[in-house]
Amino acid sequence: MTSDQPSLVTENLLLRPLSPLDSARVCELASHLEIAAQTTRIPYPYIEDNAREWIEAQYEEFKRGEQLNFAIVERSSGELIGVCGLSRINRENETAELGYWIGRPYWNQGFATGAVEAVVDYAFRVLGLNRVYSRYMRKNPASGRVLAKCGFVHEGTLRQHVKKWEKFEDIEIAAILKEDYLQHD
Question: How far is CA 143 from CA 54, 61, 67, 160, 165, in A?
């Protein structure tokens, strides 16, 4: 699989295109119940076929300009530790949805914040988007804290917006505008 998708580098992270070779590691990290329980799109159990199919599908969506996902790699170890990216890229309205997850062993170490900052910077400075938003489950307040650290403003609650494991869940939505991002940069 070839890609003209860029890589992004921060002090501690390398955000690079996902590869089919990442399937086993993505599966290893995403197959934890805690990950699936706090995300709207990751199933449980999560098997390697899920990872492989998702990586292949996101690559096709990247080629169509609809999605841009990065493997989050810890630079010091070279280990893939999660995924961060943009989906629902809407060129007409200059918006995209930010999504991310970090493997359980890497929580509370600033990796999500670093990845989100890099992807948001890319969204505004390179893609020329005007608004980046993110939806997260109310029962995952840590995700809201990551977004707040990155300058996102909480916009509201989508009550009982998704049904996960036979239970309706509230979804929080937060966003950041290009003008606000550039003003605080």
Answer: 22, 25, 21, 18, 20
Strand pairing category for 13-17 and 68-74? antiparallel
Residue type, 6: P
Give the tokens for residue 53.
Answer: 């199919």
DSSP 138: T
CATH number of 8-183: 3.40.630.30
> E-assigned strands of the chain?
8-9, 13-17, 68-74, 80-90, 95-102, 131-137, 153-164, 167-177
Each residue's pLDDT, cut to its tens digit, for the chain (185 residues) gives 446 899 999 999 999 999 999 999 999 999 998 998 888 888 888 899 999 999 999 888 999 999 999 999 999 999 999 999 999 999 999 999 999 999 999 999 999 999 999 999 999 999 999 999 999 999 999 999 999 999 999 999 999 999 999 999 999 999 999 999 999 86
CA geometry: angle at 77 spanning 32 and 13, to 5°?
Answer: 85
CA 124 to chain CA centroid, nearest Å: 16
pTM of the model: 0.94
